[in-house]
From TrEMBL:
<feature type="transmembrane region" description="Helical">
    <location>
        <begin position="242"/>
        <end position="261"/>
    </location>
</feature>
<feature type="transmembrane region" description="Helical">
    <location>
        <begin position="138"/>
        <end position="163"/>
    </location>
</feature>
<feature type="transmembrane region" description="Helical">
    <location>
        <begin position="169"/>
        <end position="190"/>
    </location>
</feature>
<keyword id="KW-1133">Transmembrane helix</keyword>
<dbReference type="InterPro" id="IPR036259">
    <property type="entry name" value="MFS_trans_sf"/>
</dbReference>
<dbReference type="Pfam" id="PF07690">
    <property type="entry name" value="MFS_1"/>
</dbReference>
<keyword id="KW-0472">Membrane</keyword>
<keyword id="KW-0812">Transmembrane</keyword>
<comment type="similarity">
    <text>Belongs to the major facilitator superfamily. Nitrate/nitrite porter (TC 2.A.1.8) family.</text>
</comment>
<protein>
    <submittedName>
        <fullName>NarK/NasA family nitrate transporter</fullName>
    </submittedName>
</protein>
<feature type="transmembrane region" description="Helical">
    <location>
        <begin position="105"/>
        <end position="126"/>
    </location>
</feature>
<feature type="transmembrane region" description="Helical">
    <location>
        <begin position="332"/>
        <end position="352"/>
    </location>
</feature>
<dbReference type="InterPro" id="IPR020846">
    <property type="entry name" value="MFS_dom"/>
</dbReference>
<keyword id="KW-0534">Nitrate assimilation</keyword>
<feature type="transmembrane region" description="Helical">
    <location>
        <begin position="211"/>
        <end position="236"/>
    </location>
</feature>
<feature type="transmembrane region" description="Helical">
    <location>
        <begin position="51"/>
        <end position="70"/>
    </location>
</feature>
<feature type="transmembrane region" description="Helical">
    <location>
        <begin position="12"/>
        <end position="31"/>
    </location>
</feature>
Length: 403
């Protein structure tokens, strides 16, 4: 981060966007670290466990589109305030009334999806303050709120052991309320906010092939990241017999790696170009997930390969959002919603397919292998579009950013 970057935008808003995103992601994946204890109490099957951790991801994916529209209509700050209030109220209600059935857990998962939709608020909130040459760094910092998933994996299993998993839902509302107060003070909508568009204008974006490419690319990078973040506690407990707390520590290490490098991925993309950095990241992710699908003999070896996969996916998240604002700066709100939605759908697919694969075949191999194949397809697709991108909207005459 150089002096030019610090002078280019609005640092308090960038910090507020990061904090808002961080605590939102912490609660979005909360059911994953708690899944072992919840499943034991409610006697859930492998497929039900997979669905339980996948529902917040899917709900968050769909609600991102809603938030993307609201961001362009009423502004990101107001949209974020409304969403955070809904999540706090939902967690408080779940704690107060208690959870005693699988259906009630799924309902909580839908509410937690609103926290996952914070993505479509935090990124436009930060993005609109920064010029094209600093988009990768700014969105990498705001997007490093992915690190909230580390706190969930690290703290939730231990707190559940000490106080009961239902009480953890109530405790999670406390940092949300504190950060909401900070957000209200520090966050500020950019002065050049684009005028609100009609739903027909939003739908028009989908007629652009590049929008679909970005949606697919992010469904692999972010989908892989959040799908693994939601599922790895179950995986390490089931496959290697680790206790819920230790499995949470292993998951936290993987998630920390993927979260930490998101700003790095954005900064690298600013320097060498988003296409070039994404090419390397998809290749590494496909290889790592392919190795994992074969089954590894020890938890520590699996941890090492998962960390490698998460590093590639985390950097890929930053690289995708170095490119999106260059192509769709005037539609960044709706594009953040659309791209974020498909990222969440990718996570839902991975989390649910792992549980289904385990129940049907007795192994997680098929779920990992399919996602490795998707990473390879993304690599091929990126290779196919990069020349057109660099000669049209990515040309030096059009943007000062590296494509």
């Amino acid at each position: 981060m150089n002096k030019g970057f610090l002078k280019a935008g609005h640092l308090p808003t960038l910090i507020a966007a990061f904090l808002y995103f961080d605590v939102s992601f912490m609660v979005w994946v909360l059911l994953g670290p708690l899944a072992v204890q919840i499943a034991a109490d409610l006697r859930l099957s492998a497929a039900e466990k997979g669905l339980m951790v996948a529902v917040p991801v899917l709900a968050g994916a769909l609600l991102r589109l809603v938030n993307g529209v609201l961001v362009d209509s009423i502004g990101p700050k107001r949209t974020g305030t409304i969403g955070q209030g809904i999540v706090i109220a939902g967690l408080a209600a779940a704690w107060w009334f208690g959870i005693s059935s699988f259906a009630q857990v799924l309902l909580v998962g839908v509410v937690l999806g609103m926290a996952g939709a914070a993505f479509a608020v935090a990124l436009p909130l930060a993005s609109r303050w920064y010029p094209p040459e600093h988009q990768g760094t700014a969105l990498g910092i705001a997007g490093a709120g992915n690190s909230g998933t580390v706190f969930a994996a690290l703290l939730a299993p231990g707190l559940a052991l000490a106080f009961g998993w239902n009480n953890v839902l109530g405790l999670a509302a406390i940092p949300l309320a504190i950060v909401l107060a900070v957000y209200l003070v520090m966050a500020k909508d950019a002065p050049d906010r684009p005028a609100a568009k009609s739903l027909a204008q939003y739908a028009a974006v989908l007629r652009n092939a590049d929008a679909w490419w970005f949606m697919f690319f992010y469904s692999v990078t972010f989908g892989g990241f959040v799908g693994l973040a939601a599922s790895l506690t179950i995986y390490f407990n089931d496959v290697y017999g680790l206790s819920p707390v230790v499995a949470g520590y292993f998951t936290a290490a993987c998630v920390f790696a993927g979260s930490l490098v998101r700003p790095v991925g954005g900064a690298v993309a600013d320097r060498v170009g988003g296409v070039r950095s994404l090419t390397a990241m998809y290749a590494v992710a496909a290889l790592a997930l392919g190795i994992i699908s074969l089954g590894l003999p020890s938890a520590w070896l699996a941890l090492a390969v998962f960390v490698l996969a998460m590093l590639a996916l985390g950097m890929g998240n930053g690289a995708v959002f170095q490119l999106v604002p260059q192509r769709f700066r005037g539609e960044i709100g709706v594009m953040t919603g659309l791209v974020g939605m498909t990222g969440g759908i990718g996570g839902f697919w991975l989390a649910s397919s792992l549980g289904l694969s385990r129940q049907v075949t007795g192994s997680y191999q098929a779920g990992f292998l399919v996602f490795a194949t998707l990473a390879a397809i993304a690599l091929v697709g990126l290779t196919g579009v990069k020349r057109r991108w660099r000669s049209t909207w990515g040309a030096a005459a059009v943007t000062s950013a590296r494509i």
